[in-house]
Amino acid sequence: MKARHPFTLIELLTVIAIIAILVGLLLPAIGAAKQKAKITQAKAQVKALQLAIKQYESTYGYLPVSGAESPLGATGANSEYDKLIADLSLTNRSGNFGRTGNPRGIVFLEVQTAGVYEDPWKTSTVGAHNLRVVLNTNYDEKIVLDATNGPYADVFGQVAIWSLGPNGNNNQGKGPQQGSSNDDVNSWDN
Question: Which of 54, 73, 134, 142 would disulfide-bridge 160, Cβ 3.0–4.6 Å?
Answer without folding.
Answer: 134
